[in-house]
Each structure stands twice: as C-alpha cells, then as structure tokens.
C-alpha cells in the first residue's frame, strides 16, 4: 500500500496541469501546514519565529515546471529578492535553489549565468547557497554548476547527496570539501541508477552520513527518522565529532516538537522553509515520501470519515477540473 501511495503522489507531482490548478487554491488543500506562506514577508516572519527558538532556516522559493527563459528570469529575480530580504531583516537563514527553476532544462549556460548572478549577491552579503538536487537527469549538470560557482565564489555554495543513487558514495567522496546535505531522495528513479527498496536506501543513507560526518567539511543530517537521529547522536559522541561539524535538518511543518527539542539539546538545527504560489510539486513529493503525512492533510481538508486516499485523489481531480475552466 505504501508503495502504491508513493507512486500515486509522485505521478501527481509531475502534472503541470494540476500544478496550474493548485495555484488557484492558494494553500487550501492542506499545504499551508508545510509551506510557509505564498510571499517573502510571510516566509521571513516564519523564519524569525524559528530563530527565536534557536533554529536557523534554509529558505526555498518554490518553483517548478519552468520551460521558458521569461519564467526562469522571473524566478531568478524572486530569489534575488529573497537574498535581499534575508540581509535586510537579519534573520538567520541561507537559501536553497533548484537549478531547474532558473533554467537548467532550457539551457545550461543560461542557468549558470542566473545562478552566478544570485551567488554574486549572496557572496556580498555572506549568505550561503545550497543547490538542491532533483532527478537523475539533472544530477551531473548540477554538480557542474556547483563547481563553477565555487571557483568564482569559494565557500558560498554546497549541494545535496541523495542516498538512493547507486553512485552516491562516489559523489560524496568527490565533494567532501563542500557543505553537504545528505537526504534519502524524493524522486521516482529507475532501478539501474537508484535503489528502490526502502531498507537498501536506509542502509546506504546511514553509511553516507557516517562517512560525511568523519570526512566532509560540514554535514546536514536531513531526516525525520527518530531512529536514525538517535544513531547519529550516538555516533558523533563515540567519534568525538564537534557540534560545529554538523546539523540536523527537517522540513517545515514536520515533527516540530522534535525540531525544538534537538535545538534545546544544543545541536545546530536548520528547518527547510519553502514558500511561494508554486507549491504543488513540492507538496505532492512530501506526501509520497511519508504515507503518514496523509493524515495531516486529511484532518485539515476532508471529513475524518473520508477515506484518505479517495479524499486526496478527489482533491487532485478537482484541481485538474477547475484548472480547465
């Protein structure tokens, strides 16, 4: 059942039609619990509240399905505005960028120019940039952008290692001099490039974390799995790894009590804070990652007696119908 739900929501996440329809609803389909508003001011206010609890943030101006230069340029300008807002407000936050949002699927050189323009401003203000990784077809182009940005603005940029890829350890070893976020992976990938069994992914994830903690410049342990978190807490203690070498990361809206508790325990903690009108693809992948997330949405949108899967499918269908009006 879990695998069926995952495939269901991953399929929905790739629908440009549903994405367009979802924007008409704002965040009324439950996404308001995991997306920090639709504009910069709302996102900055959310981050300010997190900072008051000893939690830093990485902010993601959501955007997908970018297929022309005008859309990519508009996204770049919005991200530049986010960098400016972080600087002016003084909140403790860095930014996360998806290369596809600023033109990777259009033209590599065009995308690189956009990222470099963002990096120039971030470098001026001392704001770190994380290049989010997406699906496998974008993996190596993103690494190339990483290297190009680092060559011009050293120390300002890092990226993500996804544990479900067979080559993840090779990539981790190659980029261990960068600040790295280690994740399990949230896209549907074929078996020839990625592990598909949860147990295999989890095992590789822990293996990558341990290597990164011992060898990488800085490690972001990005997971909501309390068992893995407990293992990492024990591992860093046994190997005398300083708290300044790593942080825990979770997504905004998930396991908030644990986020606060880890911060209170003295661990560096960063919350991934997404915002924007283009929230649909992100939201669907969060539902695909953890079937438990369905309950969160169902409580806010549908009658509790409604079957969760049917309710969400109906919601997705409704979005699609309304988007055609």
Automatic annotation (TrEMBL):
Taxonomic placement: Bacteria, Bacillati, Bacillota, Bacilli, Bacillales
Gene Ontology molecular function: any one: proline dehydrogenase activity
Keyword list, A-Z: FAD, Flavoprotein, Nucleotide-binding, Oxidoreductase, Proline metabolism
Reaction catalysis annotation: L-proline + a quinone = (S)-1-pyrroline-5-carboxylate + a quinol + H(+)
Positions bound to substrate: 98, 285-286
GO BP: L-proline catabolic process to L-glutamate
SUPFAM superfamilies linked to this entry: FAD-linked oxidoreductase
The protein, known as: proline dehydrogenase
Cofactor note: Binds 1 FAD per subunit.
Pathway(s) of this molecule: Amino-acid degradation; L-proline degradation into L-glutamate; L-glutamate from L-proline: step 1/2
EC number: 1.5.5.2
Domain Proline dehydrogenase as annotated: residue spans: 43-293
Pfam families, sorted: Pro_dh (PF01619)
EC top class, as a word: oxidoreductase
